[in-house]
Design goal:
Shape: globular
Structural class: alpha/beta
Number of helices: 24
Helix content: 25-40%
Radius of gyration: 30 Å
Low-confidence stretches: 1-5
Largest sheet: 7 strands, parallel
Strand order of the largest sheet: 11-17-16-15-14-13-12
Amino acid sequence: MSAQSQEKVLAYKGKSAYVIALAADAIPAEQTAARELQEHLKQMSGATLPIKSETEVPEKAPQILVGGGPRVQWLVEQPNTKSLGDGFFINTSGNQIILAGGRPRGTLYAVYEFLEALGCRFWAPGESFIPKQTTLRVPNINSTYFSPFHYREQFTSSVQQDPLFATKMRENGHFQTQKPEWGGHYSIIGFVHTFDALLPPSKHFKAHPDWYGPGAAQPCLTNLAARQEIIKNALAQVRANPTAGLISISQNDNVSPCQCANCKALEDQEDSPGGPLLQTVNAVAEAVEKEFPGFLVETLAYQYTRKPPKTIRPRANVIIRLCSIEADFSKPLDSEANASFRDDIKGWKSIAPRLYIWDYMTNFTNSLWPHPNFRVLGPNLRFFAQNNVVGVFEQGDAYSNGTGDFPQLRAYLIGKLMWNPQQDENKIIDEFLQGYYGKAAPHLKAYLNLMQDAFAQSGQKLSTFHGDHSWLTLQVMNQATRHFQAAQNAVQNDAVFAKRVRRARLPLDHVWIVRFPVLKRQAETQRAAFEGPQDLNAFGEEFLKANEEFGTGQWKEGGPWKDYAPSLKRRLVQSKATPLPADLKLKPGASVLDIQDNLFTLFRAGELATLVDDAGAGDGKAARIVGNTTEWAVQWHPDDDNAFLKAAPWHCYLRIRVEHKAGTPIGGTAFTCGIYDTATRTYLAQEQRTLEETASGEYQWIDLGTQPLKTGTYVWAAPTNNPNIQAIYIDRIICVRE
């Protein structure tokens, strides 16, 4: 018998003999499931299947049974659907198709699984593929499925902004806003980093300083009075929201635990700062359990508490959420590169009654950079499943509003893999690229492979705060540009696909703008082709316009696009060549970095530092810092062309002038400046000048000496909050390779 003959015909030429039979006691989510099924089948075939109560449909009539009513329980040897959780049962044999799952979400998931088996694809919010079929055939399916992860959440724009899409991705997390008709979602009181809310320093520190560690950054967790206050406030929160099911009792987001004698003794005894934390969490969990049996208490194993304690064990109603923030996200979490995290997850696996994971798939420094982590997403989720993890939170680019490094693909892929981590991620990627980008797919796949390979060959660690982009060499950028050009050519006659490809290209264009001086220099020194923008200003203006059109939200967590765009716009200005300092005796062919104001980083731009017209500046513009601050409000961060920078030390000069406040004395320090190394937290150079030395208001050169430059070092300048200073002006920085 052929495979096609085993399939049943559900609809033909806009007509169907089938009825959607809804369980008589259907909950709102199951009623939604029936409507979703009806609507999608109509879009596919033109046939509208009526929705009726199961009790109104003859037993032997062709029907699609939606929800776990009596007929489903009678037809199949299947446990009561209440035991399925978010899982479901699908059976298409015989004259009756069964789509049933656990409450509240399982039946909805069964319907979407069934629709996907018929060829539907839900790529992104509002972007789906619904096949049109004159003859709608149903393949043979007889399966029961439970995801290993009961709690599934990704922090991305796609699912945070669209509860319907989150449901289609089978996600049920705290920040996803599904109402009961879409199956609801997990609700965690406080969500995370809750100690400040449970024991507010603003309320208690003055009267009880002993309740806190240094700077009141974290509570003293061995102080019994502080612990009782935490318990009291936690119970009050649960009483106010008893249906939530979960409360977070977790450390604040810093690395300053209490180090009093008692805390330190317990920490040493347990060989982990997680000892004092878990002892307090267990005390809260015990109190919660007495009043609210079944209610769960969650805490973090995060940064300094990541390592499991030696003897203290989580109570049965405690969830441990282990965080991977320190990992190398270019390599699987079970690899030697991540041995520390690998050992911690195995340690928690052996003692935690419930284990959740907080994983990271974004760059907090700037989400507009390429972030080559696609090859680890599948292996990591399979690793979690192998180690008894039952909940996963994947932190992505929730604030970008859909721009960045292929956020639609990443959201689709991670949603599929959180539901079933045993799927082949490469097949999912290929399917998405083909369905979402059409004929551009092979070129975009080549681009993604290029980026993964280039980063792997660089030997860098992919951090959640990654800032070294030297792996994006001229050769990589030229090849990436060719791939995208081919992708755009392939879909130039399809407006939908072309728009999607343009949005996907934004991170590549961002690299060309930010690294333009580096890549241009590489082309000149290597005598190589430069396939980047020939007119940087026009290229950058189009990039800025595209981000506006696509509605880019934030470029990093807490960083609105509107605040970042001006710094990019400054980079588009090609500074005029200006005379070098007269006392610089340059050898023939000496390498000179002439850093003009358009490449400065301005801290609190528009408030403390601004770019202004200044006739005395070499190019007619300078960075101005208000006098009433000590902030390092103007900085220059050397580019990440480390091969070029490390070739020799650099002699650095900074050109600066001071504006004296009229009518005030000429006294005090006017400004400080220097070079700082973030890796060693040391000053490589530091200079200061008095107002008396600078009162003329003329520009002068400050010699910062000969220093090594690399990614992580930077030049800075700042006033000294001298009331006699109106402002200081920085024109340029010159670095000469010695």
